[in-house]
UniProtKB/TrEMBL annotation:
Name of the protein described by the UniProt record: 2-oxoglutarate-Fe(II) type oxidoreductase isoform X3
Family per similarity comment: Belongs to the iron/ascorbate-dependent oxidoreductase family.
The keyword Iron is annotated on this UniProt entry: yes
InterPro entries: DIOX_N (IPR026992), IPNS-like_FE2OG_OXY (IPR044861), IPNS-like_sf (IPR027443), Oxoglu/Fe-dep_dioxygenase_dom (IPR005123)
SUPFAM superfamilies xrefs: Clavaminate synthase-like (SSF51197)
Any Pfam family the entry gives: DIOX_N
Presence of the UniProt keyword Metal-binding in the record: yes
Recorded superkingdom: Eukaryota
Keyword terms, alphabetized: Iron, Metal-binding, Oxidoreductase
Entry-linked PROSITE patterns: FE2OG_OXY (PS51471)
Domain Fe2OG dioxygenase: 108-212
Organism: Camelina sativa
Gene: LOC104790869
């Protein structure tokens, strides 16, 4: 298939391509999706930016105008996320534009994913639309349709976990905080643990994942540590962290070459 997901994580990702909670899932996620990211190469002198690269587009006679619509949505979603980042900065006692630096959201990794679910989930059998996880990066701007499916667990340490449905509100987005933000903020912001259950109806969602630049060193922010509260997490380069998380949760691309 011309647009099958490639090594830059662009294009079509089939059902079971990802498994987000292998401990509790028997199969992969019952979802198919399409990844669209940033193409810009201007800050890539060494080619060491695996999350930038050309997008894969279906032929324009198959879906006329689709590429322009998606590019426009990507641009606008990023603008919204940069505004939310200002609120996050203020909440952490940082200057409002703290995250606008070139190494952070000046050159972000921003991956938009168009997701389609079908089928009926059954947690007792380990079948999920999308297994329990928290998103990897800084924040996710999540657009959903009106079909219920998304659940969050407010207390990540609780055993057993208590899951609550998130109602979809027409015209509103859901914002999930990610694991890189939890690390940066030394746990002041907790990433949102969530999963998706299928109820037999088709369901569509558009998560827009925002991460800093490839080279950004994500280390405890100055305002989030003190003598009594030392950094809980070691510093890590954004691209190293994301690459690990993508590889751990996706099947190896070589399996598609054997088909
Ligand atoms: O479909 C949803 O509502 C959530 C999707 C999601 O959590 C993800 O793709 O990371
Ligand atoms: Fe997610």
């Amino acid at each position: 298939m011309k647009v099958l997901r490639n090594e830059n994580n662009r294009g079509y990702s089939p059902v079971f391509d990802q498994i987000l909670d292998p401990e509790n899932q028997v199969d992969g996620d019952y979802k198919e999706s399409f990844f669209i990211g940033i193409e810009d190469f201007k800050d890539d002198p060494h080619g060491d930016t695996p999350f930038y690269g050309p997008n894969l587009w279906p032929d324009s006679d198959v879906l006329p105008g689709w590429q322009a619509t998606m590019e426009n949505y990507h641009q606008e979603a990023l603008r919204v996320c940069k505004t939310i980042a200002k609120l996050l900065a203020l909440a952490l006692d940082l200057e409002a534009d703290y995250f606008d630096k070139p190494e952070i959201l000046g050159n972000p990794i921003a991956v938009m994913r168009l997701v389609h679910y079908e089928g009926v989930s059954d947690p007792s059998k380990g079948i999920f639309g999308c297994g329990a996880h928290s998103d990897f990066g800084m924040m996710t701007l999540l657009g959903t349709d009106s079909v219920m499916g998304l659940q969050i667990c407010k207390d990540k340490e609780a055993k057993p976990r208590k899951w609550e449905y998130v109602p979809s509100i027409k015209g509103a987005y859901i914002v999930n905080l990610g694991d890189l933000l939890e690390r940066w903020s030394n746990g002041i912001f907790k990433s949102t643990l969530h999963r998706v259950l299928g109820n037999g109806q088709e369901r569509y969602s558009i998560p827009f994942f925002v991460e800093p630049s490839h080279d950004c060193l994500v280390e405890c922010l100055p305002t989030c540590q003190s003598e009594n509260k030392p950094p809980k997490y070691p510093a890590i380069k954004c691209s190293t962290y994301l690459t690990q998380r993508y590889q751990q949760s996706h099947v190896d691309l070589s399996i598609y070459k054997q088909i």
